[in-house]
Write a structure and sequence with these properties.
single chain; about 260 residues; alpha/beta; 2-enoyl-CoA Hydratase, Chain A, domain 1; Lyase 2-enoyl-coa Hydratase, Chain  A, domain 2; 2 domains; four-stranded mixed sheet
Length: about 260
């Protein structure tokens, strides 16, 4: 186990897992340019380390993140808004990470932080979590979130959240599909780590291709997506892991994937 300090972001490696922690608890982990830089460095570490198979993103203290630090938006200048999801500097954003990313939402998850969470592949919430898109209260756009949130939850619910700016609690988030589980606060990280370990134990080429296909299906028509699926399925068939998986099933044993050794 090792921890790397990336300024206001911590990067911890535990076996095949990487835990990325927003570390501005005194400011409810408000997103600023330092967090932007630290996250991009963290995602680079995740992508470049073949030993890392799954990442968990969370926040220190009582918030996942309260969203963009409005104090950095001098005079409302749009160039002051930290572009954490796409563009705006070297390195990948969370939506570009090829490995699975789980958001462990431990408290407030608001505005730009909700955008960050919906860019993750899975979201697990503490009972204490709250979600919201309060930007309209300050005449700020939930711009990327307006593109992303309707893909995560029903349109009517997304519109109510974005146009009223009101928060929803963890149980409401579960009922509309914004998160897949709600757990006691002290069980949040153990639950996310157990989920990550299950994913890490699977065939990793199949895991990454499945993730890619799932997002491809959202961006393409079915016919185009099927063409991509056929090509990637052929690629997967050449993997030694694809030979080992069915053999292990036939032998009634746990697979010993060659690429995982």
């Amino acid at each position: 186990m090792s921890i790397t300090d990336l300024g206001v972001v911590l990067y911890e490696k535990r076996g095949h897992l990487a835990i990325v922690t927003l570390n501005r608890p005194e400011a409810l982990n408000a997103l600023n340019r330092e967090i932007q830089s630290g996250l991009r460095e963290a995602w680079n570490l995740v992508e470049d380390d073949d030993d890392v198979r799954v990442a968990i993103l969370t926040g220190a203290g009582r918030a996942f993140s309260a969203g963009a630090d409005l104090k950095t938006m001098e005079g409302g200048a749009p160039d002051k808004y930290p572009q954490l999801r796409a563009g705006g500097g070297p390195g990948p954003s969370v939506s570009q990470v090829t490995k699975p990313v789980i958001a462990a939402i431990n408290g407030y998850c608001l505005a730009g932080a909700l955008e960050l969470a919906t860019a993750c592949d899975m979201r697990i919430a503490s009972e204490q979590a709250q979600f919201g898109s309060p930007e309209v209260k300050w005449n700020v756009l939930h711009s990327y979130g307006a593109l992303r949130l309707p893909h995560a939850i029903p349109m009517a619910v997304a519109m109510e959240m974005m146009l009223t700016g009101e928060f929803i609690d963890a149980q409401r988030a579960l009922s509309v599909g914004l998160v897949s589980r709600v757990v006691p606060h002290d069980q949040l990280m153990p639950t996310c780590e157990a989920l990550a370990e299950k994913i890490a134990s699977n065939g990793q080429l199949a895991v990454r291709i499945t993730k890619r296909l799932a997002y491809t299906s959202l961006r393409m028509g079915l016919d185009q997506a099927r063409e991509v699926s056929a090509a990637l399925s052929q690629l997967n068939s050449f993997s030694p892991d694809t030979q080992e998986g069915p053999k292990a099933f036939a032998d009634k044993r746990k697979p010993d994937f060659p690429t995982a050794r």
